[in-house]
Amino acid sequence: MRVKFFYNIFFIFFCFFPWIVHVFDRGIILSMKLSIILALIGIPVIYLLPSIVAVYGRKHENALSVLVFNFFLGWTIIGWIAAFIWGTYYSQPKDINANIKIKNVDK
Fold first, then answer.
1. Predicted pLDDT at 58
2. How many CB atoms lie within 10 A of CB 82?
3. Are residues 42 and 52 in the same domain?
4. Are residues 22 and 9 in the same domain?
5. Whole-structure pTM over 0.70, yes or no?
6. Which domain holds residue 4?
7. 18 and 53 both lie in a single domain
């Protein structure tokens, strides 16, 4: 009785094993493709995050400089942090009328 039980387990295992491996293998290949796609999109976005924040988030007046700095020095951790701080730094827009004094002409 025990021999037949182990024989059945052995038979079921080896009959369905190729199917199990195939499904498992398809899942691994699918997850690898998904991981590659996410990496190809995610790594450049994270690398250029300081520039994205400067251009779209803060509308920084030196956004092009932040982009160039981030592109060339962003591969270093210190350069990326410096670009991120520079990109998130809020700079007041320059008011061209701020230096003009208006005389009060009430007579």
1. 84
2. 17
3. no
4. yes
5. no
6. 1-46
7. no
- Residue 86 near residue 55, CB atoms below 8 Å: no
Whole-angstrom Cα distance, residue 40 to residue 47?
11
User: Residue 45 is encoded by which pair of tokens?
Assistant: 């976005």
- And the tokens for 83? 């670009």
Residue 35 CA to residue 16 CA, distance in Å, equals 28
Both structure tokens of 11:
């038979």
Interhelix angle 77-88/63-73, rounded to 10 degrees, is: 170
pLDDT of residue 61: 86
69 domain residue, yes or no: yes
Give residues with Cβ within 8 angstroms of 2, minimum separation 6: none
- Residue type at 83 in one-letter notation: A
CA atoms of 84 and 82, how far apart (whole Å): 5
**What is the model's pLDDT at position 38?**
80
> Residue type at 91?
S
Q: What does the alpha-carbon distance between residue 12 and residue 49 come to, in Å, rounded to a whole number? A: 53
Which residue positions in the chain have pLDDT lower than 50? none
